[in-house]
């Protein structure tokens, strides 16, 4: 009735969802270029970036020393249009109640041909600190992500990829780490058990 590790598996190693997030972002490293926006920290830009000229870090609240922009993705008029060549938005949109407005903002602030790389949770537990600060409003499916992103970017500009299976979903809820499973178990995919959904969306010229 209680998880093996209540801290997402961090006490045992790399959390299962983090493996999927990193695999998705890393597979699109070529898109991480020019002027990049990332949420909370510039970790993935630093790891996977390709010919990056500038990085801005966005936070919804004050207090993060890495943040260069403090704004709400659902309402950020202070961020100019057509600014970023890439936006990396991992594990964030579940905390934005007006998620359609967030997609509209991301589309607006990307430059023409700019790329949104986003990941969202499917099967997961609620994250207590963020739920208290912002509210955890949504968990997603491939279908919902494709439709939401398509409304903002156009259906033809959207690619969606899901990761997970019944074992990794159950293991993630129990707080197992990636090292607790074999490679074949970790990499198997079952569309009925989506742990992470990855989105790549391109703003039209």
Key traits:
single chain, 205 residues, alpha/beta, Rossmann fold, seven-stranded mixed sheet, 30% helix, globular
Task: Provide a descriptive summary of the structure in words.
This protein is an alpha/beta fold and 205 residues long. It has one domain: Vaccinia Virus protein VP39 (Rossmann fold), CATH 3.40.50. The protein contains seven helices and seven strands, in the order H-E-H-E-E-E-H-E-H-H-E-H-H-E. It has a seven-stranded mixed β-sheet, sandwiched between helices. Helix 3 (99-109) links the parallel strand 4 (84-90) and strand 5. Helix 3 crosses helix 5.
Helix and strand topology:
Layout: H1 16-27, E1 34-39, H2 43-48, E2 52-59, E3 69-70, E4 84-90, H3 99-109, E5 110-121, H4 128-133, H5 142-153, E6 158-163, H6 166-174, H7 183-187, E7 196-202
Parallel strand pairs: 1-2, 1-4, 2-3, 4-5
Antiparallel strand pairs: 5-7, 6-7
Helix pairs in contact: 3-5
The count of helical stretches stands at 7
Main beta sheet? 7 strands, mixed
Task: State the order of secondary-structure elements, H for helix, E for strand.
Answer: HEHEEEHEHHEHHE
| CATH homologous superfamily classification | Vaccinia Virus protein VP39
Which percent band covers the strand fraction? 15-25%
**Which geometry do the CA atoms define?**
globular
User: What percent of the residues sit in helical stretches (DSSP H or I)?
Assistant: 25-40%
CATH architectural name: 3-Layer(aba) Sandwich
* End-to-end distance: 52 Å
The CATH class turns out to be: Alpha Beta
Radius of gyration: 17 Å
Q: What is the subunit arrangement here?
A: single chain
Which structural class is indicated by helix and strand composition?
alpha/beta
Number of strands: 7
């Amino acid at each position: 009735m209680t998880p093996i590790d209540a801290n997402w598996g961090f006490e045992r190693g790399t959390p299962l969802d983090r493996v999927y997030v990193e695999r998705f972002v890393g597979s699109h490293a070529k898109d991480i270029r020019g002027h990049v926006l990332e949420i909370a920290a510039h970790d993935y830009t630093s790891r996977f970036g390709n010919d990056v000229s500038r990085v801005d870090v966005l936070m919804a609240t004050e207090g993060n020393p890495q943040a260069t922009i403090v704004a709400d993705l659902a309402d950020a008029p202070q961020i100019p249009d057509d600014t970023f060549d890439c936006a990396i938005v991992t594990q964030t949109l579940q905390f934005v109640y007006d998620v359609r407005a967030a997609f509209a903002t991301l589309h607006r602030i990307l430059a023409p041909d700019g790329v949104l790389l986003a990941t969202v949770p499917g099967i997961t537990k609620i994250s207590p600190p963020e739920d208290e600060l912002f509210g955890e409003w949504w968990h997603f499916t491939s279908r919902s992500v494709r439709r939401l992103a398509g409304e903002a970017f156009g259906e033809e500009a959207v690619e969606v990829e899901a990761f997970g299976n019944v074992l990794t979903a159950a293991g993630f809820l129990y707080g197992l780490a990636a090292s607790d499973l074999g490679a074949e178990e970790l990499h198997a995919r079952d569309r009925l058990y989506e742990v992470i959904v990855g989105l790549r969306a391109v703003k039209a010229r």
